[in-house]
Amino acid sequence: MTDRSYTTSFTVDQTPAQAFAAIVNVRGWWSENIEGGTSRVGEKFRYSYEDVHRCEIQVRELIPDRKVVWRVLDNYFSFTRDSSEWKGTEIIFEIARKGDQTEIAFTHLGLVPDYECYHACSDGWHSYITGSLRDLIASGSGRPNVGEAITQSEQLLTRPTAA
């Protein structure tokens, strides 16, 4: 059986150490509204965006310059029938040297097309991973969410509905 979990990857000219440092700097590429620790195994952090999405994540594995694994402990979506769709899934970053470049492979294990949130979540991950995280690694400056809708999906989910 083929795993249908969301995955994406990109390469940068920077070292695996620079990529690893950027990944664990979650506030630098995903959201400035992260509460808790993100750089030690066992630490837990919380992400929230308006009343649209909240989750609690635990850092499960850190292999410097090679791998980061998070486990979603709790999740809430305002826009799905099952608000806990991410609960129990794993978010994996794998870092590898490919010639003179570094490849970052991202997998949200368990985020599958059957999920109601899949379109919005895959759109979000694409923007945050191949856009903001890549920028943070390459230039030292990411584009984290600072309370404003960044992706098209976020904009649609936070747009007031017509009465």
Automatic annotation (TrEMBL):
Entry superkingdom: Bacteria
Short name of one Pfam family: AHSA1
CDD domains assigned to the protein according to its UniProt record, in alphabetical order: SRPBCC_CalC_Aha1-like
Activator of Hsp90 ATPase homologue 1/2-like C-terminal domain span: 25-136
InterPro entries: ASHA1/2-like_C (IPR013538), START-like_dom_sf (IPR023393)
Ranges in coiled-coil conformation: none
Protein family (similarity comment): Belongs to the AHA1 family.
Name recorded for this polypeptide: ATPase
Source species of the chain: Labrys okinawensis
